[in-house]
Design brief:
Layout (H helix, E strand, L loop, with lengths): L8 H17 L15 E4 L2 E4 L1
Antiparallel strand pairs: 1-2
Organism: Lynx pardinus (Iberian lynx)
InterPro entries: DNA/RNA_pol_sf (IPR043502), Rev_trsase/Diguanyl_cyclase (IPR043128), RT_dom (IPR000477)
Family: Belongs to the beta type-B retroviral polymerase family. HERV class-II K(HML-2) pol subfamily.
């Protein structure tokens, strides 16, 4: 499991794109069902995390 946090929406989008690109280069797959991108609240390892 990976958690990426950012200070702004733009930074979140850019960092997410960079991370997904690098994971692809390394041969890792990302589950579209599990992805929670640029949200103020997410479930991570069973815990709800908020801003």
């Amino acid at each position: 499991d990976l958690l990426l946090a950012a200070d702004s929406l733009e930074s979140c989008k850019t960092s997410t794109e960079d991370l997904l690109r690098e994971l692809d280069v390394l041969g890792y797959k990302v589950s579209a069902k599990k992805v929670q991108i640029c949200l103020g609240s997410v479930i991570y390892l069973g815990y709800q995390l908020r801003e």
